[in-house]
Structure formats: structure tokens, C-alpha cells
Amino acid sequence: MAFTPEAALDYLRRAHEQNRIGHAYLISGPPGSGKRRFIDQIARLVNPTDGEQIQIAEPESKSRRIVVDQVRALEHSLQMRAANGRRKIAAIIDADRLQPQAANAFLKTLEEPPTDSLLLLVTALPEALPDTILSRCISIPLAAPEQRLVADEESELVQLLNSAAASNAGVNGAYRLAQGFHALLLRVRENIQEQNAAALKAEEARYKNTTDGAWLDQREDYFKALTESQYLQQRGRLLEIIYTWWSDVLRAKNGIDRTDLPAARKHTAAIADRLSTPEILRCIRRVEELRDHLSRNIQEALAVEVAFLTLFRSCEKRDRS
After folding, report:
1. Segments forming the whole domain that contains residue 47
2. Span 215-260, pLDDT tens digits
């Protein structure tokens, strides 16, 4: 059962009052469930006075993984003496991205936690963590935020992914999917441009007789920047749909009766039957790499095509083996 953040905090507050706070918690939940804010609330609960900071390790390398040196630095901070009976708090953000060597190093800390320490693992994908780590943490799953209206573009993307799964993808299917996704992105950008162009035109009509030309130039620059910002935000949401789709594949592979995309349940289950867990995890990492590449302004259409060919060719290869 998933908790709301408020219910989860009440649960921990009662444990704290009874001096029964555990040494390690796994905070999981989908994007938007408030995991990051929740660990700040935990810190204030166990260390109510101001000034206490959480020591954090999160993906920083080019591969967007948490490396062993980060875990060792975290362990070093936990070995320091705590002041005035306070807890030493360490959090691993996106713990599913721990490199194997880093996960093994952190496992030793879980097995022999330093005195007065509190370890928090935060992830949207707990299924990707080793059982040896999961078994040593108290799980606190946070509920998804209230269901928002799904944009037409997001529904269309789910249908594209489902179609690729149903057709066994392969090179041609993966290429068609990449083209479909790129066309979807182009339409999103065009819609945003049209809306902002209409807003600028309305301002021109309203103020053309009361302002000088310099002001109009500034407004044009403003709407250009606004268009790019809104587009990147919408593209990020669509990439999150792809990540969620593959996360549902992993859950199906592990027999977890939960899906964040109910409309894709049959298709994600079919892919789960076709691929091994390591193959699914590699696909999830490939989606993360696509997100990182696009954030560095790599040519969008090429990055999408290469990523989708990798993602969906694997489905066909497994099916034919």
C-alpha cells in the first residue's frame, strides 16, 4: 500500500516518538510523488533544530550513474561524530542508478550502519535495486499525485509505443517509431509557436500606439524564449512517458501488479515476456541517456533515431532467439 506523504510522515513521527526509527528507509514513488521534499521533512523530524544538512549522493557522472567514490565520501561523512544527540543523515537520490561496485560498497554500510546514522534511499524504480539492499531497508512507497488530465500528445505516444511492441518492432518498426515520435515533437513545437505568436500579435494590437519599437523587440525576444522553454518542458514530459513505459515493463517482469500506464499494460507485459531483466534495465538506461543527450543540445532527430533503434531492435532479437 502506498502512503500519501502526510500519512508517511505521521507513521515516522510515531516511530520517532517511541524511539523506534529504523536506520535505513527506501523512499519510492513515481515522479511527482514528493520524494525529495519528503526526505527534507524526515530530516526536520529527527533533527528538529535548524542547521542540519542531509549528505546527498546522486548521479553526477557522464553516464548518469552513482559511482563508488560518491558512496565512500558519503560513508566518510557518516563516520564523523554526531553533535548533541543528533542523527547523521545520508540520502542516495535515484538509488536505482548505483553502479554495481557502488551498490556493493553501500551494502556494507547498510549491514553495519554507523552509530546515530539514518540512511535514506530515494528512487522511482525500486525494482532495479538488488534484493540484498531492498531487504535491509524499511520500505515507504509514496502514492502517485492526483491523476491529472493526460495530454493528447502523451496518449498518442503511448499508442506509438504499444504499436511498436505489438509488431515486434525490429529495425523498420523502430525507425517508424522514431519518425512518429519526432513528428509528435514537431507538432508540439508548432502548437506552442502558434499560441505564443497569437499572444504577441494581441499585445501588438493593444499597445502599438502607446509604446515604442524597442518595447516590441523585447516582447518578441520574450516570446521566443518562452516558446523554447515551453517546448523543452513538453519534450521532457514525453520522455518521461517513455521512461515510465519501460519501468512498467520491468515491473511486469518482476511480477509486480502495478502499472503507471494502464493503457499499456498488455503491451508492456508482452515485452516483459520477451526480454530478460538485464535487457530491460539496459533499455531503461538507454532512455536516460537519450534524455541526457538532448539536454546537451545534441541534434534531436538523430539522437531520437539512434535511441529508438537500440530500444526496439532488442525486442525483435529476443523474440527470434
Report:
1. 5-141
2. 566 778 878 888 888 899 889 889 989 999 999 999 999 998 888 8
Same domain, residue pair 167 and 275: yes
Nearest to 271, CA basis, from 293, 300, 305, 242:
242
**d(C-alpha 138, C-alpha 251), whole Å:** 20
146 is a domain residue? no
> Which set of grid coordinates corresponds to residue 264?
499499456
Same domain? 162 vs 294? yes
Q: How many angstroms separate the CA atoms of 247 and 224, rounded?
A: 35
- Contact of 305 with 175, CB cutoff 8 Å: yes
**Cβ(59)–Cβ(45) below 8 Å:** no
Identify the residue whose cell numbers are 543527450: 293
- One-letter amino acid at 72 equals R
- Find the farthest-apart pair of alpha carbons in the chain and give their distance in angstroms, rounded: 73
How many separate domains does the chain show? 2
Nearest to 276 by CA among 249, 242, 257: 249
Which of the listed residues 121, 141, 161 is the one where a domain comes to its end?
141
Q: How far apart are CA 243 and CA 254, in angstroms?
A: 17
pLDDT digits over 247-300, tens only? 999 999 999 888 889 999 999 999 999 899 999 999 998 998 898 888 887 889
Integer Cα distance of 91 and 35 in angstroms: 11
Name residue, grid cell 535515484.
Answer: 94
Q: Residue 113 carries which side chain, given as an amino acid letter?
A: P
HSE-CB at 86 with a 13 A cutoff on CA atoms is 21
User: Which letter does DSSP use for residue 154 in this model?
Assistant: H
CB-based contacts of 216: which residues, under 8 Å, 6+ apart? 204, 208
Give CA–CA dist 90/39, Å, rounded. Answer: 10
Q: Domain holding 52: CATH number?
A: 3.40.50.300
Grid coordinates belonging to 305: 533515431
Same-domain check for residues 31 and 121: yes
Please give the Cα distance from 161 to 180 (Å, whole number): 10
